[in-house]
Design a protein that fits this description.
Helix content: 25-40%
Oligomer: single chain
Number of helices: 13
CATH class of the largest domain: Alpha Beta
Bound molecules: iron/sulfur cluster
CATH superfamily of the largest domain: tm_1862 like domain
Mean pLDDT: 92
Low-confidence stretches: 436-457
Number of domains: 3
CATH topology of the largest domain: pyruvate-formate lyase- activating enzyme
């Protein structure tokens, strides 16, 4: 396609849910220019790799994939290769120097410039930059029953281990009316569940509405049966927000509330701006007002200076809170963050041992909490057939528990069914059909993403 206007594009996405949403934004921008998405890089005039910088390993995977693309690009004359996302922002021209066959490196706040950079037209580049919220751009949402909607971008928290504030810039919120317009469009397309997304979603404020206000507005959109949100910072989870969840049946009682450590000393070094006891009191308040709530968390083990005693504090917090699920990560240095100045002094084998110990503990707790569902009746949003086991279907409770069941006739994705839970493992509930509720809403099936965090799937 040398010298010709590109007509097709391919996007591969690494990293978090925000990146997946951004890929839908980029697809929306390119489709607006008349390009069509294809499913392989070989068939594409423009190949975009949406990258993640949150861990060293994520960047290494991207660099490896770029090398795989190199011969494909050489074989397809005129193909343009763009690296977008956090890694493009972090490395910029250094990336182009290291991989000269890459044509563009475009950070997360400059996607409106893509049409111009790809020679397609002007786009809306004058709106691009640090204040970018992609207001007025309609993402090309992947088909399914549940959609993500970014309501704010960036982060001001500067947790000492985290690269996000450096690659995604200062926190900014999208006007509530723009969020509502996107949610209404989603409902019209047949989506029944929306997940409001932000790096620090509960500090949302558009000048008029805080996050609790926004949740309530979204919960009232006709056709939206469930509203979820991620990710919450414990210091910003207000009583008003707890009340909103408690008082609205279609706001799902699941809160992902990263604690990161149970040691005050380490929390301070992480710049998390809450203490162990403040976190525990918050959990108490949430459970007092929303008794059925499911709580999940993120934990980092082996942060610089974490002693065995600090780790024991984390272990005891996990015992005390009894999370429904926890995602445990080994600390790894990100250059440019404040923690990179600290000595990474916990030996790798010790980090692995702490991670495995916490995972074993959490698995027992998850199993106990899931077993408490056995005998209960729950409402489940059907996501589609279990592709590994014909005849089985997969859905989710409002508490984000995955439920597997075997109906006598196929059930369409988007239907709500009542199931009696008959069995449980640490990760899955098994149910029997009681009665279907309401007409099926959409016929398409949800893609299960094997790389997603369990609460994102
Ligand atoms: S709250 Fe902390 S961990 Fe989360 S994105 Fe912001 S700086 Fe990173």
């Amino acid at each position: 396609m040398t010298g010709q206007r590109p007509t097709t594009f391919y996007i591969r996405t690494y990293g978090c849910q925000m990146n997946k949403y951004d890929s839908e934004i980029v697809a929306g921008i390119l489709e607006e220019q008349g390009l069509r998405e294809v499913s392989t890089p070989e068939a594409a005039d423009v190949v975009l790799i949406n990258t993640c910088s949150v861990r060293e390993h994520a960047e290494q995977r991207v660099l490896g994939y770029l090398e795989q693309l190199r011969p494909l690009k050489a074989a397809r004359a005129g193909q343009r290769l763009a690296v977008i996302g956090c890694m493009a922002e972090r490395l910029g021209s250094r990336l182009l120097e290291a991989k000269p066959f890459v044509d563009l490196a475009v950070g997360p706040d400059r996607y409106r410039e893509l049409p111009r950079l790809l020679g397609l037209g002007d786009g809306n580049a004058e709106l691009s930059g640090e204040a970018e919220t992609y207001e007025g751009i309609w993402p090309s949402h992947r088909k399914g029953v549940s959609a993500w909607v970014a309501v704010m971008r960036g982060c001001d928290n500067f947790c000492s281990y985290c690269i996000v504030p450096y690659v995604r810039g200062r926190e900014r919120s999208r006007p509530a009316e723009s969020v509502l317009e996107e949610v209404r469009r989603l409902a019209a397309e047949g989506f029944v569940e929306v997940n409001l997304l932000g790096q620090n979603v509960n500090s949302y404020h558009d000048g008029r509405h805080d996050f609790a206000d926004l949740l309530l507005l979204v919960a009232d959109v006709e056709g939206i049966r469930r509203v979820r949100f991620a990710t919450s910072h414990p210091k910003d989870l207000s009583e008003k927000l707890i009340e909103a969840i408690a008082s609205h049946p279609n706001i799902c009682p699941h809160i992902h509330l990263p604690v990161q450590s149970g040691s005050d000393r380490i929390l301070e070094r992480m710049n998390r701006r809450y203490t162990r006891s403040q976190y525990l009191r918050l959990v108490e308040r949430i459970r007092a007002r929303i008794p059925e709530v499911a709580l999940t968390t993120d934990i980092i083990v082996g942060f610089p200076g974490e002693t065995r005693e600090d780790f024991e504090q984390t272990r005891s917090l996990v015992e005390e809170v009894q999370f429904d699920g926890a995602f445990v990560f080994r600390y790894s240095v990100r250059q440019g963050t404040a923690a990179a100045q600290l000595e990474d002094d916990v030996p790798e084998l010790e980090k692995i041992a702490r991670l495995e110990e916490l995972n074993r503990l959490q698995k027992k707790i998850s199993l106990r909490r899931n077993r408490a569902y056995v005998g209960r009746k729950v409402e489940v949003l059907v996501e589609g057939p279990n592709r590994k086991r014909p005849g089985q279907f997969v859905g989710r409770t409002d508490t984000n528990k995955i439920v597997v069941f075997s109906p006598s006739v196929p059930i369409e994705a988007g239907s709500f069914v009542r199931l009696r839970i008959v069995e449980a493992t640490a990760h899955t509930l098994f149910g029997e059909l009681e009665a279907e509720q309401g007409p099926p809403r959409v016929a398409c099936l949800t893609e299960q993403n094997p790389d997603a965090q369990p609460w994102e799937r």
